[in-house]
Amino acid sequence: MRIRRRQLIAGGAAALAGCEFLGAGERTAAAGPGTPLTFMLDWFPNPDHVPLYAAIGAGYFTQAGLNVNLEVPANADDPLKLVAARKVDVAVNYESGVIFARAQGLPVRSIGLVVSQPLTTIMFLKSSGIRRPRDLAGRRVGFAVSGLEDAMIDQILRSDGASKAGVTLVNVGFDIVPALLSRKVDAVIGGYRNVERIQIEMQGQPVGMFEPEHYGVPPFYELVLIAGDAAVRSRRDVLARFVRAVGRGLALTAAHPDEAFQHYVRLNPKLNDAFNRRSFEATLPAYARSQHQLRERWAAFSGWMAAEKVIPSSVPADQLYANLAP
Amino acid sequence: MSVLRAAGGRGRTGSAAADVSRRAATAGARLRAYAARVVPPVVLLAIILAGWEAAVRVFGIPFYILPAPSRIAGVLADDHALLLGEAAVTLGEVLLGFAIAFVVGVVLALAIFSSRTVERAVYPLVIASQTVPVFAIAPLLVVWFGYGTPSKIVMAALIVFFPIVVNTVDGLRAADPDMVNLLVILGAGPAEIVRRVRVPAALPFVFSGTRIAIATSVIGAVIGEWVGSTRGLGYLMIHANAQLHVDLVFAVIVYLSVMATALFWTVSLAEWTALPWRRAEAAAHTEGEV
After folding, report:
1. Which ipTM was obtained for this model?
2. At CA A117, angle to CA A112 and CA A123, rounded to 5?
3. pTM here?
4. Phi, psi of A194, deg, nearest 5
5. Is B135 in Cβ contact with A147 (below 8 Å)?
6. Highest mean pLDDT: which of B26-40, B43-57, B209-223?
7. Which residues 256-285 of chain B have a CB within 8 Å of chain A?
């Protein structure tokens, strides 16, 4: 969701900036023998992707007989469409993205996990005096369009006996950090605890957060691996090898974080800075520990999205995921 | 134009018999002329839509890559209240932005035309302003002017401004020098020359610039809405995109095109009304063709 709002910039301005990242991130996998497989990130390389770069750098994909061609999308919604249209084999996306896609009839599902905990929050400066969700009443809350912003704030306020009717919602579009720091808004929906929190703290401002999973939003997988239904049927073995290799990258990241981070910055030299280091450390507890997806999680989050009316009706969980590499 | 008029004149006076029958069939001819103008674009549009619909069905193109026109039409019908409401917001931003840019642009063009110093100082900056990608400054405008309507109006105005200034300056310079000299000889002052010769000469240019400007100003308002807004067609578009409502995105695009086209024709109509001498030339042009 954090990423998704950046599609705005991707549409234009950051097509310029994005290209730079593209140069760094694209086609980093070694060309060589093996089954070719196109793999698209959800957005430009960032610390969420460290385990993926660790798997590339440590040669896990090559060892799995895969020749992975890494692509960076121009827009965070593109991977869903491109996977559905079979232009891309596997992509990184979000649990909500898969559910939105299924609700619209796109034949995609999750086949693995990268970040298995929610990272998104409602974020505010401690100096704002906000202490609990109901303190948001009468305040201006910024959001980036994710399709879920209304549902998130509605749920979090309801859990504290308040209503979103008293909150002024403002689309702050391109970047939520300046909106918060310049105090144009009192809080923002969609700030990540491992990204925006670090950025704001590096500006010397203490940050407060409401984590959605503590206020009645079902816990969800923040970053998942998606593939098309057809590929899951016909190339199950290739995809399972891919998911296992990602699992090895995640295991390497958990056991040897420094080594994993070194792979990441070696493959993305421009990202070797203090922010990426701190963001990576903040992400460490959230990386997936297993590739086994829980049916209840998919069902609960899909049910919640339907209850909040962001999708017309709940999507059956067995359409949303497939465990390929137990 | 004068050549065309002459050609039209020859056509008219070529044969007395033809002249009579022509007069008898004036109503029919007018209808035919109207049909000749309306039928080709309608037929072409129908062919394009039919080809699009057929391609989607024959090649089985999924709706999330390219929705069929019939599917988009369904969304246009189902969500017309939503679309009209958001379109009104965007149209308001476009018109306000256009009005501001038009006034500022024309005043600036007069200043540039009147003074070499102003021209040397301002013209390069005007051109430079157009080279700044609107996408790059959109987020800044939002920070400067806030998340409300003003940043969208400024965005639309920035896009409109340039063609208005450049065309108006060109138009003011386009006056027939013999005519200007004649007025000088007759003792007219600079203000009178501008009023009697330069402004009438400039008006067609101003209208040309305005036509281009107003159609593209829609883009400015939409970009403004993308980077910070909770209303308007641009907002509806990114919201629909985030939820993968691809057909609604296309429905918004239809609305934006229709809006830009309608604005374009409105300016053309204004030109037709305001510049009767152009109307005569256009009529001669059409008759020359017939």
Report:
1. 0.73
2. 140
3. 0.79
4. -105, 0
5. no
6. B43-57
7. none
